[in-house]
Design goal:
Distance between the termini: 28 Å
Shape: elongated
Radius of gyration: 19 Å
Strand order of the largest sheet: 6-7-2-8-9
Number of helices: 5
Number of domains: 2
Order of helices and strands: EEEEEHEEHEEHHH
Length: about 210
């Protein structure tokens, strides 16, 4: 599939920043989402979009039997526009796939701290958002770090939720900015249950990283 692009009209290009974190997100749009990709009639193969104020212009390549066709759509969008949500965090969504159930989006970030905020913002606008894969070339931490790709599909929804909250509240920072009991209370579960979830996350991620070397 060819890369898709998304842009905002009259965007400023006076700031250059290397984006070394690649995210792959699976998004289930809200039932009344104004996005033209929400619940398409045919499988979407490629998308090019551009926002112009409150109007989204989209060229969508859709599967049509054995052939494909390009459809142009002009749609008025509101505050639930996913492209706007990505723009809030200075990243560009690339639509990799869309069907009647979900939209798969690829984007790039420069700061790990933004990941949780982006996912939480998307979660406010959608029925469901799932971080499926995180890839880092290591340049945000060390110039000599190796590229590492982590497939998050092996994590359960509860494990991902626990990990995101733990990272967001600084549980893995040194020194820690929060304690396990505080996180458990925020999630409405016991400390032992949260500990089990985080241990499972850590084990799966460590296995995914070092088994691939």
């Amino acid at each position: 599939m060819a890369d898709s692009t998304s842009g905002v009209a009259e965007a400023k290009a006076d700031t250059l920043r290397e984006q070394h974190l690649q995210l792959l997100l699976e998004i289930e749009p809200a039932k009344r989402c104004s996005c033209p990709l929400a619940g398409p009639d045919s499988a979407v193969e490629d998308v090019h979009t551009q926002l112009d104020g409150d109007v989204c212009h989209a060229e969508v390549t859709v599967g049509d039997g054995d052939a494909s066709k390009v459809v142009h759509a002009t749609t008025s969008v509101g505050d639930d526009c996913l492209c706007r949500a990505f723009a809030e965090f200075e990243c560009v969504p690339r639509i990799r796939r869309a069907d009647s159930e979900c939209i798969v989006v690829e984007t790039y970030l420069s700061d790990r701290a933004v990941i949780t905020d982006l996912v939480e913002r998307l979660d406010e606008l959608t029925e469901r958002v799932c971080l499926r894969r995180l890839t880092s070339d290591g340049r945000g931490d060390s110039a000599e770090s190796k590229t590492a790709t982590i497939d998050l599909s092996s994590l359960t929804a509860k494990q991902r939720e626990a990990a995101l909250i733990a990272v967001h509240h600084g549980y893995y920072e040194t020194p820690r900015r929060t304690e396990l009991a505080t996180l458990a209370e925020a999630l409405g579960i016991s400390k032992s249950a949260l500990s089990q979830r985080l241990n499972a996350v850590e084990a799966k991620l460590a296995t995914a990283v070092f088994d691939s070397e």
